[in-house]
Write a structure and sequence with these properties.
about 290 residues, alpha/beta, 6-stranded parallel sheet, 3-stranded antiparallel sheet, about 20% strand, globular
Amino acid sequence: MKTRSFTHTINPFCAVIPGQVIGAVGVGRVVDSKHPDFKIGDLVSGWLSWAEYTIVRDCQLLQKLDANMGFPLSYYAGGVLGHAGLAAYGGLFKVCKPKKGEKVFVSAASGSVGNLVGQYAKLFGCYVVGCAGTKEKVDLLKETIGFDAAFNYKEETNFNAALQRYFPEGIDIYFDNVGGEMLEAAVQNMNLFGRIAVCGVISEYTDTQKKAKPDIVQVIYKRIKIEGFLAIDLNDIYPEFVSTTVQYLQTDKLKVIEDMSYGVESIPSAFVDIFRGNNIGKKVVKIAED
């Protein structure tokens, strides 16, 4: 088969140079292979690119998928059974180590990671509050996903007061996806020995002036643990994550929220939508029918 192909060696944590192939987590089908572990027709997930075809030199970046599981392929494209799910599960259970009944706050809670954090925490037995940027998203968190409460941060003039209202007894765990002023307010409302998992700082990515300045005196005297992490740090719990998540999916205990776009030409606008807060759940681009 003659295809348009791209060879790439990409560091996902470096800036993209104009003209360079853009890497992305994705799912694909092998159309040609010179590697003994990957045969034509195999389904794979891993680090691919913004393209219809990709040549992967380092096959450690790929893993085979079991098509017999019966889940949509989008689940593996960085979604509930991919990096977003692993970040949510590992950030909550490995970084924050929750106890049943603890109070959990999740920012950007309708996003690909945040909505799963809230669901894992609820299934574990925690009280969960999330924030999001529209009424539609807030309603989704409360009525569909099952958060105990949620609020629209754009309607709040004082984040500290808002968190006091929703957590009158304080926050035990804050899963941070936004950074900035929300992180500062969360620190003010943390309980003794509170834990903060820093997964993302969406408020700071496009505004270099927005840098969180948490009250370090509060951090010290409350003995707050603040830990940043990446999904790749959590590979040691990958089997546990997959086993637990598959069980939840098969028993309909976990809801999957996806925002699907179609065609390679839709990738740029889909990417920009994430930074504008236009997506709900995991943003996925479907390049071709399987």
